[in-house]
Write a structure and sequence with these properties.
The protein is of the alpha+beta class. The protein has one domain: SH3 type barrels (Roll), CATH 2.30.30. Helix content is about 25%, strand content about 45%. It contains one helix and five strands; from the N terminus they run E-E-E-E-E-H. It has one helix at about 55-70, and strands at about 5-15, 15-20, 25-30, 40-45, 50-55. It has a five-stranded antiparallel β-sheet, covered by helices on one side. It is elongated and about 40 Å long.
Length: about 70
Amino acid sequence: MCLAIPMKIIAIDGMVATAEVDGVTRQARLDLLPEAHLGDFILVHAGLAISRVDEEDANATLDLLRKLADEIQ
């Protein structure tokens, strides 16, 4: 199973974004989303930004993932 994580873009350098969620930062290529901007929420999968999402949807997804993680622990 594959999972894309919603993350917020906190920096952009060319076609590489630095994205953050819960204090964790990752690099994500923007080849599929050249229109992405600083502050946008993106879905990151395997180091690639695959979609933009609105903040409300991103937070709802992150809340569900956090609840799932709490249940597993």
